[in-house]
Write a structure and sequence with these properties.
heterodimer; A: 4-stranded antiparallel β-sheet; 0% helix; globular; B: mainly beta; 55% strand
Chain lengths: 114, 115
């Protein structure tokens, strides 16, 4: 069985500061890992995905995530936060080949202070 | 425009009403999904339709009934709902065999309030 834990349901950073959103997973097989972002009143949008190629994955809007098998982690980072990054972020894991039966974490709401 | 369109965006219904949520995808995908997003809970997969096969989460009550007439349209029929069913219902689509290179594409959701 697979599961995802996102530490911190709320994270607040100042504009220009480093963004770090944590995700740990459990999976019985090599996983596919995803980060999605949800802006207010919208659905989820794919930020980036890990598919067993490079362990450092770059996504849209300057975000990146690093897969660390030894730590079973897939933390999301961005060097400098922008006000427009304020949203809810979801980490998800999939074990099936199609990568579409996802298990989501509880989400982390990112707040960016001016 | 996300490629996945959900209607209505907002719905308020009483516990004795019958209503339906509609989802349409314009991406040529062959798998569609219903997710439930409740406050303070992880997204919950309710149903999957792919290549005319249906997979369902056994914990979903029978008062939710999906229908997928073709690969582009998905409905969620609602009847005798409970207040705890109030949530954001998200539709998504993907290519079933596309692998992680074909991730889920979500609609903007229907905000359902049961009174």
């Amino acid at each position: 069985a697979q599961s995802v834990t996102q530490l911190g349901s709320h994270v607040s950073v100042s504009e220009g500061a480093l963004v770090l959103l944590r995700c740990n997973y459990s999976s019985s097989v090599p996983p596919y890992l995803f980060w999605y972002v949800q802006y207010p009143n919208q659905g989820l949008q794919l930020l980036l995905k890990y598919t067993s190629a490079a362990t450092l994955v770059k996504g849209i809007n300057g975000f990146e995530a690093e897969f660390k098998k030894s730590e079973t982690s897939f933390h999301l980072t961005k060097p400098s936060a922008h006000m427009s990054d304020a949203a809810e972020y979801f980490c998800a894991v999939s074990e099936n080949n199609a990568g579409n039966m996802l298990t989501f974490g509880g989400g982390t709401r990112l707040m960016v202070k001016p | 425009e996300t490629g996945v369109t959900q209607t209505p965006r907002h719905l308020v219904m009483g516990m004795t009403n019958k209503k339906s949520l509609k989802c349409e995808q314009h991406l040529g995908h062959n798998a569609m999904y219903w997710y439930k997003q409740s406050a303070k809970k992880p997204l919950e997969l309710m149903f999957v339709y792919s290549l005319e096969e249906r997979v369902e989460n056994n914990s979903v009550p029978s008062r939710f009934s999906p229908e997928c007439p073709n690969s582009s349209h998905l409905f969620l029929h609602l009847h005798t709902l409970q207040p705890e069913d109030s949530a954001l219902y998200l539709c998504a689509s993907s290519q079933k065999k596309g692998g992680p290179n074909s991730p889920l594409h979500f609609g903007n959701g229907t905000r359902l309030t049961v009174t």
